[in-house]
Amino acid sequence: GVSWKLADHPKLPKGKTVAMVVLDGWGEAKPNEFNCIATAETPCMDSLKKGAPEKWRLVRAHGTAVGLPTEDDMGNSEVGHNALGAGRIFAQGEKLRTDLLIDVIMNSCVMIETSWSVIVHFSAKLVDLALASGKIFEGEGFNYIKESFANGTLHLIGLLSDGGVHSRLDQVQLLLKGVGERGVKRVRVHILTDGRDVLDGSSVGFVETLENDLAKLREKGIDAKIASGGGRMNVTMDRYENDWNVVKRGWDAQVLGEAPHKFTNALEAVKTLRAEPKANDQYLPPFVIVDENGKPVGPIVDGDAVVTFNFRADRMVMIAKSLEYENFDKFDRVRVPKIRYAGMLEYDGELKLPSHYLVSPPEIDRTSGEYLVKNGVRTFACSETVKFGHVTFFWNGNRSGYFNADLEEYVEIPSDSGITFNEQPKMKALQIAEKARDAILSRKFDQVRVNLPNGDMVGHTGDIEATVVACKAADEAVKIILDAIEQVGGIYVVTADHGNAEDMVKRDKSGKPLLKDGKIQILTSHTLEPVPIAIGGPGLIPGVRFRNDVPSGGLANVAATVINLHGFEAPSDYEPTLIEVADK
Ligand code: 3PG
Ligand code: CO
């Protein structure tokens, strides 16, 4: 059993209110016209940077520092919040066979320390390993869906992209090849176009690649086609129940074969819909592919199998519920086919959803949140809907619910729905800040944790002007929280989960904006930039400062830091704390 008792920190006191502020999508980069954070008025964040140099630094928020396969992988909120909360770059050591471990060691720049437990893989790498070893085709989940291959159709639903945040095209390709070799007779792919983790317009190339793979299956006598599609922000991939209509539009197209747009060919569909004014990959309307008689080629019917191939959970939980739950009242499903459904991963360990999956998810245990609550730290967490699960579910190691409801309160502020966030770039920053302020002033909590989504959610729209407004709003929210901390004699930690708003243009290797047809290419995705972390507040005892012996520190080092600021020593296997207390 886990020993939950944390040792007292030799120098740092207990009982200070600690505000833990995560600015979503807020990286550090040189000021220029594409750096919305530098352009925006951000007096509060500026003062933290210009203040005491030993209380502000940068930490790594991408690549292997957050458990991603390579240093070319931009950070994302899932792995960012996992690392912030779990204090370790999460390991799947025990689950892998030694030969696979060796493969991992050879093929990824994962830092190996003395114990296996620091070898870390998040979902993307777990799926890679399962596909590379073929284990994915031997597991319970695959055997379950395989039962339908003889008489039914296999439907694959997911994000068609190589963004590597929610899914990866190369994994879909391997999956298709694998089912082709294992008796599948009929395959239908329901695509969701990206443009958010990858450049807008890249959907066309991804559809071409997929069509090639489907043609290869057809050469082998397998009836394989794209059956429906739509942009990820418009169809299927909502999260945290922000807008069930998004999932409904997906259901109508994928299951019922109904959509406002019909095409006989997916490439033509994407090209035509993209030609509409202001169209972009993220928001393409739903479409279905029909045969020459106008009949949809791939509605989901009794006896079929379905796989949702995204590995990341947040935007799959809702579709998983709609596919799996018998009692379901979020929208009228009209027809509920009897199917065998498996997720690429299990998306929610508490809900056991879905009940079948192809790859076991990473097990992130002993998070800082759980330790702190078990050591009596009363915790408040808040964000608006679109990031609420980030400061709760992801923070707590992809676990929903409270550790101890008597000591915790999680507050969700409803996000605007049915708009793109550049229309309301201030989002709910003020409301989140006010909730945090009230929680701090109430003195009922020892930790008050928030996520301010603006930089990220508006940054993803690619609207530079709106992103500047968004950054200003986030800065104002930070100010409100810091003022409250001042009033109660508390401590603040302000950081971010990954970069986004600090760079809005696609660049070449030398850093120059990339031109396409003479125009710059807007970068809607996250970045590889480091993020700031600042500590301060009247509750910080004299001498507390950032150490200078963890120069490559990353988000995972923040958990031990925060545990220290609550007056405890961090567990010994956590990544080292960023702070020390200098003797005066
Ligand atoms: C999304 O889901 O919105 C993006 O793909 C990733 O953004 P996030 O990691 O900041 O949530
Ligand atoms: Co984001």
Automatic annotation (TrEMBL):
Annotated GO MF terms: manganese ion binding; phosphoglycerate mutase activity
Protein's pathway: Carbohydrate degradation; glycolysis; pyruvate from D-glyceraldehyde 3-phosphate: step 3/5
Instruction: Please list the residue ranges annotated as the Metalloenzyme domain.
Output: 16-569
Cytoplasm as a keyword of this entry, yes or no, is yes
Q: Catalysed reaction per UniProt?
A: (2R)-2-phosphoglycerate = (2R)-3-phosphoglycerate
Q: What is its EC number?
A: 5.4.2.12
Q: Which cofactors does this gene product need? A: Mn(2+)
Q: Which GO cellular component terms, listed alphabetically, does the Swiss-Prot or TrEMBL entry include?
A: cytoplasm
Pfam families membership: iPGM_N (PF06415), Metalloenzyme (PF01676)
Query: Where, per UniProt, does this protein localize?
Result: Cytoplasm
Entries under InterPro entries matching the protein: Alkaline_phosphatase_core_sf, BPG-indep_PGM_N, Metalloenzyme, PGAM_B_sf, Pgm_bpd_ind
Q: How does it assemble?
A: Monomer.
Name of the protein? 2,3-bisphosphoglycerate-independent phosphoglycerate mutase
Q: Which terms are listed as keywords in the entry?
A: Cytoplasm, Glycolysis, Isomerase, Manganese, Metal-binding, Signal
SUPFAM superfamilies attached here? Answer: 2,3-Bisphosphoglycerate-independent phosphoglycerate mutase, substrate-binding domain, Alkaline phosphatase-like
Q: BPG-independent PGAM N-terminal domain location, by residue? A: 128-348
Species assigned in the record: Vigna mungo (Black gram)
Family in the record: Belongs to the BPG-independent phosphoglycerate mutase family.
GO BP, sorted A to Z: glucose catabolic process; glycolytic process; response to blue light; response to carbon dioxide; stomatal movement
